[in-house]
Amino acid sequence: MKLIVFSKHLATKSPQELAAFAAELGIDGYDLCIRPGHPVTPENVATELPFVAKVMSNAGLAVPLVTGNFDLLEPDHPTARPILAAMAESGVKFLKLGYFKFDPAKHDYAEEVDRVRRVLAGWEELAAEHDITVCYHTHSNRCMGLNCAALAHLLEGRRPSCIGAYIDAGHMVVEGEEFAVGARMVRPHLKCVALKDVLVTREESDAGHGKEKRSWLESGRGMVDWTSVFKTLREIDFTGPLSVHCEFECEEDKREEAIKREVAFFRKFVPKA
Question: How do 197-204 and 190-195 pair as beta strands?
């Protein structure tokens, strides 16, 4: 397992600065954002992703995973082929898509499952052309595939070498799914794991009933049972990248120190090779 950091909160760093910060952190590389405002964007991916991958490789680091922009959903998106071609050239294996939203007031769930399955079938063909695995991430808050049980319906019948599961320990807590159970539901497709922690508490609603409040925290302060998470990953022989998301609430001028604490927390479970 490689411990990597999601570069979402490091958008202002150049590739060389990212490599230097990785050395400070003691990580194995990055889950690299391909989004506007980052060193690699959907528009410059053909030249900049190979360049960043080379900078990382020269520093003894890896880029096993890239995260696309939120609108990267359909295989006929104009940036889809350029991104996969640049990944193949750069040796990047995994791509994370955006999210298919579900509106219970507008959508029929079964119809949406069929629609997303058709979209993933299109991605499967494109991924096979480039020897890439396109991954879908378990994300709470009315997304399709919001936990492993729902994601399994979307992945059924797809080739695991082409279409992968990217599961998230924090979002699984929010959606009430035990990591040990969920991971086994999608085990044949499991390629990547996101690491983040959350605390779910009760708030009073306007109607005087209870409602849920989610607080995204530094890991070890929330509700994720990290001992169970890593025990499960060892039991199922997971070898893919672990992306440290660092989505906790934090003052921006203190975020880099918080990222260092987050990585140190997970190094207790994943010693550096």
Answer: unpaired
200 in Cβ contact with 214 (< 8 Å): yes
Whose structure tokens read 């396109």? 134
Question: What are the structure tokens assigned to 222, written together?
Answer: 């929330």
Each residue of 29-49: b (16+ CB within 10 Å) or e? bbbbbbbeebbbbbeebeebb
Q: Tell how far CA 39 is from the center of its chain.
A: 19
Rg (CA), the chain: 18
Question: What does pTM read for this prediction?
Answer: 0.95
Ranges 5-14, 51-60, 177-186, 198-207: which has the least confidence: 198-207
d(CA 3, CA 27): 6
Q: Class assignment of domain 2-267?
A: alpha beta
What is the 3-state secondary structure of the chain? CEEEEEHHHHCCCCHHHHHHHHHHHCCCEEEEECCCCCCCCCCCHHHHHHHHHHHHHHCCCEEEEEECCCCCCCCCCCCHHHHHHHHHHHCCCEEECCCCECCCCCCCHHHHHHHHHHHHHHHHHHHHHHCCEEEEECCCCCECCCCHHHHHHHHCCCCCCCEEEEEEHHHHHHCCCCHHHHHHHCHHHEEEEEECEEEEEEEECCCCCEEEEEEEECCCCCCCCHHHHHHHHHHCCCCCEEEECCCCCCCHHHHHHHHHHHHHHHHCCCCCC
Residue 217, beta-bridge partner list: 197
Quote the pLDDT of residue 6: 98
Query: Could you write out the three-class secondary structure of 20-61?
Result: HHHHHHCCCEEEEECCCCCCCCCCCHHHHHHHHHHHHHHCCC
Per-residue pLDDT reduced to its tens digit, 238-251: 999 999 999 998 88
